[in-house]
Design goal:
- The protein is α/β, with parallel strands linked by helices and 467 residues long.
- It has two domains: 210 residues, P-loop containing nucleotide triphosphate hydrolases (Rossmann fold), CATH 3.40.50; 237 residues, Rossmann fold (3-Layer(aba) Sandwich).
- The chain is 39% helix and 25% strand.
- Helix 11 crosses helix 12, helix 12 crosses helix 17 and helix 13 runs parallel beside helix 15.
């Protein structure tokens, strides 16, 4: 093993300032908050580099624990077969016998990670209660020095309490992590509160986390804005000249917000998305919070038929080649959990373009507006840092939400619809950050002017499908 160890999360390791040898981590929380999963994740992650882990428990059944962890990608069965994990279940006897048993195990063999899950049985049999402080300060402090790597102590907080009463152990620990799971309006969110990191300056003390099938514990650290290297920024091509006339050159890493009246979204707003995807041969993830994938497919198929005279069979080939259509009901998830799902999805598909549709629904269902905008802003920074073109679609149902969306965007386009003597008019009001807004008014008749460009794009679409 190297001179430093890991929690299993590179982001969390960086936030904690790394895990040097002889690190004592106290992990506390209510039942079901993820303490055992966190401890197992630390244990298993260090075995991947050849480290050895001793897992001591008073409650957990080995087969059940290993089986549940395997669903999360924490393969303790395999690590045990390789001789890298030793699972020991100790009986709950006297405090003295329990401590002697732990000391005896550590005296026989050297381990890189030691987990005690949990400390509660030792404290429950300790009498009188005044002994707790001496036990925690002396025994566990000495025990940490016997372990060359990481010592993880799990402590369970009773359901009727909000904080653990283990101040002595908190004083001894190098890192104190309190796992929380909140249920608000029937929705679950998980928060990792980092209460103490010895020798490191904490820049935040609460971060969302998830327990993900096949991955284990995943924390979501807010990203810092990063400037993409100029030479690596790809400029996107377009077959529709009005796009560049209105907002200028579009680059990877840009965030574009397109809004429309609340009474309906004109299919025209999706034409630039189709154009950018096909013209640049770009993999596009289209996420909707209001339409199902079938409805999105029908919408794109209708646009290709009405504006580009492309039959449904060819349209399906276009969609299958360039688009991943996904929908979520945001009322079914906590905002922290939904944010994690989106990041996991984007990482899995690794698209060039991410289109997010229907963000206005959050103005009606968000229980905590501040939490939504913090997580949403973090998501946009993360996408920008990763060089994704982001196109946001939303109805203007709330001026406050519209302005906040626009303030976070590099380019903005507002679409209005007006009825006049010449029929329906489309008013486009758009600007790129740092430039003056431009206005374009089109009628259905005016759209004929752009038919040559539509034909160019249609021919390009047919050509791309055949490749």
């Amino acid at each position: 093993m190297p001179g430093s160890y890991t929690t299993g999360s590179r982001d969390l390791d960086e936030l904690l300032g790394g895990l040097p040898p002889n690190t004592l981590i106290l992990v506390a929380g209510h039942p079901g908050s993820g303490k055992t999963t966190f401890a197992s994740h630390v244990c298993y992650s260090n075995t991947l580099d050849g480290g050895k882990c001793l897992y001591i428990t008073f409650y957990e059944d080995k087969e059940k624990l290993f089986r549940n962890m395997s669903k999360l990608g924490i393969d303790l069965f395999e690590a045990e077969e390789k001789g890298l994990v030793k699972f020991i279940k100790l009986p709950v006897t006297t405090m003295e016998e329990a401590l002697n048993a732990i000391s005896g195990l550590l005296a026989k063999e050297t381990y890189d990670v030691v987990v005690v899950d949990s400390i509660n049985p030792i404290l429950e049999v300790a009498q009188p209660k005044e002994l707790h402080r001496a036990i925690l300060l002396n025994f566990f402090y000495q025990l940490t020095n016997m372990i060359k790597g990481v010592f993880v102590v799990v402590a369970e907080v009773p359901l009727d309490k909000e904080t653990p009463d283990y101040r002595a152990l908190e004083f001894t620990a190098d890192i104190v992590i309190y796992l929380k799971h909140r249920i608000e309006h029937g929705l679950l969110s998980r928060i990792m509160e980092i209460r103490k990191v010895r020798g490191a300056q904490l820049i935040m003390n609460e971060v969302p986390f998830m327990m993900i099938e096949g991955e284990g514990i995943r924390v979501f650290i807010p990203p810092k804005p990063a400037r993409l290297l100029t030479g690596k920024i790809k400029t996107l091509n377009t077959s529709i000249s009005v796009i560049t006339k209105m907002i200028g050159t579009i680059k990877m890493g840009d965030i574009i917000h397109i809004s429309y009246p609340p009474h309906g979204m004109s299919p025209l707003v999706l034409v630039p998305l189709i154009d950018l995807a096909v013209t640049n041969n770009s993999k596009t993830l289209f996420i909707s919070f209001t339409y199902s994938p079938d409805e999105l497919r029908d919408l794109i198929t209708g646009i290709l038929k009405n504006y580009f005279e492309i039959d449904p069979e060819l349209s399906n080939k276009i969609i299958n080649k360039y688009f991943y259509l996904v929908s979520y009901n945001p009322a079914a998830y906590s905002i922290t959990y939904l944010n994690g799902l989106l990041i996991e999805l984007i990482e899995d598909i690794d698209p060039d373009i991410v289109a997010i549709h229907g963000t206005e629904v959050f103005s009606a269902i968000s229980r905590d507006v501040k939490e939504f905008w913090v997580l949403y802003r973090n998501l946009l920074i993360w996408l920008k840092n990763n060089g994704k073109l982001v196109i946001l679609y939303s109805a203007r149902v709330d001026p406050y939400w519209t302005r906040l969306h626009e303030s976070q965007s590099d380019a903005v386009a507002r679409i209005y619809m007006r009825h006049g003597k010449e029929g329906l008019k489309y008013v486009f009001y758009a600007w790129m950050r740092g430039s003056d807004p431009k206005t374009l008014v089109l009628t259905e008749r005016d759209l004929v002017k752009y038919s040559p460009e539509a034909r160019i794009l249609a021919d390009l679409i047919k050509q791309k499908v055949d490749q």
